[in-house]
Design brief:
Layout: E1 10-17, E2 22-28, H1 31-40, E3 47-54, H2 57-70, E4 75-77, E5 80-81, H3 85-93, H4 95-98, H5 100-128
Antiparallel strand pairs: 1-2, 1-3, 2-5, 4-5
Helix pairs in contact: 2-5
Amino acid sequence: MSGAADSEGTYVYAISCRRLGLLKIGVADEPRKRLRELQVGSPLELTLAYTQPYGERGDAVAVCEELYRCFAEKRDRGRWYRLTVEQLRYGFGRRATVEAPQRARAAEAARASQFAAGEQKRTRTLAATPSPPIGKRALTTRH
């Protein structure tokens, strides 16, 4: 297991069900608590096999999503994968995984910039549109 789980930060974790040869990959602020939650519903023993800390939750989510893409062909069901811890470590070391937080932050900045540009355009359009006089009723013709 990497790092001291359950200190400050958010973690990408892997919980192992050795008997079935499965790893669950996820994100949690408290991986040990997440293990306890999953263990309650499982008749098989689960163990916390791996943790990787991140200072920002968004970084952990970006890495986790990249791992899901990387191991899509090994997915068993839900977020459970037929993987070894060694394969998972390989996934963490891949360039795409290492760069995932930076790409996610850049994409978020681009979305925020596009949103701000759209808001400015909307504001200019509203400012240029004449508004009807206040207190005047629209003339309607009755037949």
